Amino acid sequence: MHTLLPTTIVGSLPKPSWLAQPEVLWSPWALEGDALIEGKRDALRIAVQEQTRRGIDIVSDGEQTRQHFVTTFIEHLSGVDFDRRETVRIRDRYDASVPTVVGEVRRERPVFVDDARFLREITDRPVKWALPGPMTMVDTLYDAHYKSREKLAWEFATILNEEARALEDAGVDVIQFDEPSFNVFFDEVKDWGVAALERAAEGLRAQTAVHICYGYGITANNEWKASLGSQWRQYEESFPLLQRSSIDIVSLECQHSHVPMELIELVRGKKVMLGAIDVASEVVETPEEVADTLRRALAFVDADKLIPSTNCGMAPFPRAVAAEKLSALSAGAGIVRDELA
Predict the structure, then answer these.
(1) 90 falls in which pLDDT band (50, 70, 90)?
(2) Contact assessment for residue 254 and residue 276, using Cβ atoms and an 8 Å cutoff
(3) How many Cβ atoms are within 10 Å of 117's Cβ, its own excluded?
(4) What is the dihedral of CA 311, 312, 316, 322, to 10 degrees?
(5) What local confidence, expressed as pLDDT, does residue 39 receive?
(6) What is the mean pLDDT of the chain?
(7) Does the pLDDT at position 94 exceed 90?
(8) 3-class secondary structure for the chain?
(9) Sign of CA pseudo-dihedral 315, 294, 300, 272
(10) Any idea of the CA torsion for 333, 337, 338, 341, to the nearest 10 degrees?
(11) Is the pLDDT of residue 199 over 70?
(12) For residue 13, which of 83, 74, 69, 86 has the smallest C-alpha distance?
């Protein structure tokens, strides 16, 4: 990652229609058995090829091998019953039917390691892999065993660390933990959230990132964002804690959001993965719009620590829209890169 302003995506890309229903979040797989395994690998190849062709410097799997950014990981753990469902409030925003923790949670085998190794084999660019963060995992389950969000989070942190170390051994350069819950549960973030995140990243040689966003452009998230007022200052709660943490990269969204740009100053010294592509609108940004967002950010983060990215995942978009947004991100970063040179 010696390129100035290296570009990357934060989460998902649209899946091909033969793998899952297009433009639908978390849609069921259209294949099964060996055909599904082969289909996921083919989709991963396409995702890498598209990122490379569009000028993305740090490539990822685009979540082609995952149905859901949290539960696909949890499906591979023991101690969780997916047939025993309970309705819980997700991030104090919407109700969802979720699986139940019925015993000690354990990682019996690697979850994403084979897919990550395959990703490493098909590109010579730096690769990034995303895992759910401990607090967000806790918030996506009903706990009938530990009866403590903090206890369960520490168990998940240990499990995530096992997986992250295996991903590192498979050649992953950046390991990203997704923690949208950090924008909601401020007391828990202070009490144990950041500490659990650090436990998940403990001992890693790979670069570590935490992604804290305002979510996909779904109705529940849009309604919540509409209630936040003219300035979204949630990052003010977590950024000072993360600035003092062992996490290398802090990922946030900026494009077309109401996040005051000056909040980036709160993580001065860290690398910043800056969302310069809106994932709540299909309107494709111009390269100059992306460049303007990056220029404004450079008042608060050194150029050698700025990583232009998307706000969040792009799974609900038509594939052509997502591809054009990747091109805009790359071109906008190129404009600013030339100016700095």
Answers:
(1) confident
(2) yes
(3) 16
(4) 60
(5) 97
(6) 95
(7) no
(8) CCCCCCCECCCCCCCCCCCECCCCCCCCECCCHHHHHHHHHHHHHHHHHHHHHCCCCEECCCCCCCCCCCHHHHCCEEEEEEEEEEEEEECCCEEEEEEEEEEEEEECCCCCHHHHHHHHHCCCCCEEEEEECHHHHHCCCEECCCCCHHHHHHHHHHHHHHHHHHHHHCCCCEEEEECHHHHCCHHHHHHHHHHHHHHHCCCCCCEEEEECCCCCCCHHHHHHHHCCCCCCCCHHHHHHHHHCCCCCEEEEECCCCCCCHHHHHHHCCCEEEEECCCCCCCCCCCHHHHHHHHHHHCCCCCHHHEEEECCCCCCCCCHHHHHHHHHHHHHHHHHHHHHHC
(9) positive
(10) 180
(11) yes
(12) 69
- Tokens 């906008």 sit at which residue? 332
User: Contact, 251 vs 10, CB < 8 A?
Assistant: yes
Cα separation, 337 vs 231, whole angstroms: 29
CA dihedral angle for residue 24, residue 326, residue 63, residue 169, rounded to 10 degrees: 180
Query: Which tokens is 87 given?
Result: 């309705």
pLDDT in tens, 226-243: 888 889 999 999 999 999
What does the block give as tokens for 64?
């082609």
The 10s digit of each residue's pLDDT in 306-319 is: 999 999 999 999 99
Tell me which amino acid residue 181 is.
Answer: S
Q: Which residue has the tokens 């396409």?
A: 46
1: confidence class by pLDDT, cuts 50, 70, 90: low
* Whether 237 contacts 186, CB under 8 Å: yes
* Angstrom distance (rounded) from CA 125 to CA 166: 19
| Residue 191 to residue 221: CA distance in whole angstroms | 25
